[in-house]
C-alpha cells in the first residue's frame, strides 16, 4: 500500500512536470510568433531638455525606415543592437529597449543634460554635467550659461573639463547649474589666459571677478550677502566691478 501511494505520487509529479514543460514550451512558441505591431517611445524630459524627438529615435531604430520593426517576429528583432543604435546618439545618456507580452517594442531614453555652452571661433558646443562636449541641436536650444575661454587651446579641447585642470571649472559650472539664484543671475562666464574666471550678470551691470575656481562656495556666499544687504541700499547699478577673488573681502568699483 505504501509503495502504491509512493508510485502514484511520483507519477503525479512527473505528469505535473511534463505539463509544466509543455505549457512553457507552448507559451514560448506563441511568444516567438508574436508580431510587433507598435513601438512605444518614452523620452525622459525631467530637465525640460528636448533634444530628441520620437521621430528621430524611430529613425535610429529603423535605420531611417529601411528596417521597419512593425510586422517582425520576436526572433527577428535584436534588442541589444537596437539599444546600441540609440546610445550612439550624443544626447542619449541611457537607453533601454524591451519587449512586452504582446510582442511590441518599448523604448525608454534618458537624455544627457547640458550645463554650459562653450563658445569660441573654432567651436560652439554644449558641455554636459560630466564634462563631455555635445553638439548643438536643431530641435532645441538649452538655456545654459555661455562660456568663453582664452586659456590657450587646452580649454577648447574636448577633454578639457575632464582633465586635472579643467575639473575645477566643471565643478564651478555644476555649482552654478544647481543653484537657482546664480543660475538665473549669471549671464556669461569667461576664463582668461591666467585661468581666472569672471562673470557678467543678468540684473545690474556688474562684472564679477571671481579668480581661480577655488573656494567656490565661500566666494558665492559672501557675494550673496553683498547682493542681499548692500545692493538694495546703494542701488543695483552703483558698482560696475565686484572682485571676490581675495579671502574675507569684496572689492567694489
What attributes does this structure have?
single chain, 253 residues, alpha/beta, Ubiquitin-like (UB roll), Rossmann fold, 2 domains, nine-stranded mixed sheet, 7 helices, 12 strands, elongated, Cell division protein FtsQ
Description of the molecule:
By secondary structure, the protein is of the alpha/beta class. The protein folds into two domains: 39-111, Ubiquitin-like (UB roll); 114-252, Rossmann fold. Helix content is 34%, strand content 24%. The chain contains seven helices and twelve strands. The chain has a nine-stranded mixed sheet with strand order 6-5-4-7-8-9-10-11-12. A three-stranded mixed sheet has the order 1-3-2. The radius of gyration is 29 Å and the shape is elongated.
Strand content: 15-25%
- Rounded to an integer in angstroms, the radius of gyration calculated over CA atoms is 29 Å
Tally of individual domains:
2
Q: How are helices and strands ordered from N to C?
A: HEHHEEEEEEHHEEEHHEE
SS content category: alpha/beta
Order of strands across the biggest sheet? 6-5-4-7-8-9-10-11-12
Quick one: biggest sheet? 9 strands, mixed
Mean pLDDT: 85
**CATH architecture level-2 label of the largest domain:** 3-Layer(aba) Sandwich
Share of helical residues = 25-40%
Low-pLDDT parts are: 22-27
How many β-strands, per DSSP? 12
CATH topology of the largest domain: Rossmann fold
For the termini, the CA-CA separation is: 106 Å
CATH superfamily of the largest domain: Cell division protein FtsQ/DivIB
Protein name: Cell division protein FtsQ
Amino acid at each position: 500500500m505504501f509503495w502504491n501511494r509512493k508510485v502514484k505520487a511520483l507519477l503525479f509529479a512527473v505528469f505535473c512536470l511534463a505539463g509544466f514543460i509543455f505549457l512553457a514550451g507552448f507559451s514560448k512558441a506563441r511568444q516567438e510568433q508574436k508580431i510587433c505591431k507598435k513601438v512605444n517611445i518614452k523620452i525622459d524630459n525631467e530637465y525640460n531638455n528636448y533634444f530628441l524627438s520620437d521621430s528621430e529615435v524611430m529613425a535610429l531604430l529603423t535605420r531611417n525606415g529601411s528596417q521597419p520593426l512593425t510586422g517582425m517576429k520576436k526572433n527577428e528583432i535584436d534588442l541589444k543592437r537596437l539599444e546600441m543604435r540609440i546610445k550612439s546618439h550624443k544626447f542619449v545618456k541611457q537607453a533601454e529597449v524591451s519587449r512586452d507580452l504582446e510582442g511590441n517594442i518599448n523604448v525608454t531614453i534618458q537624455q544627457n543634460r547640458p550645463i554650459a555652452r562653450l563658445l569660441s571661433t573654432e567651436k560652439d558646443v554644449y558641455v554636459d554635467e560630466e564634462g563631455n562636449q555635445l553638439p548643438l541641436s536643431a530641435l532645441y536650444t538649452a538655456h545654459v550659461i555661455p562660456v568663453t575661454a582664452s586659456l590657450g587651446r587646452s580649454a577648447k579641447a574636448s577633454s578639457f573639463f575632464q582633465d586635472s585642470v579643467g575639473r575645477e571649472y566643471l565643478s564651478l559650472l555644476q555649482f552654478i547649474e544647481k543653484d537657482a539664484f546664480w543660475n538665473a543671475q549669471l549671464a556669461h562666464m569667461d576664463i582668461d589666459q591666467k585661468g581666472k574666471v569672471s562673470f557678467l550678470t543678468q540684473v545690474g551691470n556688474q562684472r564679477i571677478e571671481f579668480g581661480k575656481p577655488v573656494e567656490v562656495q565661500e566666494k558665492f556666499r559672501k557675494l550673496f550677502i553683498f547682493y542681499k544687504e548692500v545692493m538694495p541700499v546703494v542701488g543695483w547699478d552703483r558698482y560696475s566691478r565686484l572682485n571676490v577673488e581675495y579671502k574675507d573681502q569684496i572689492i567694489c568699483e
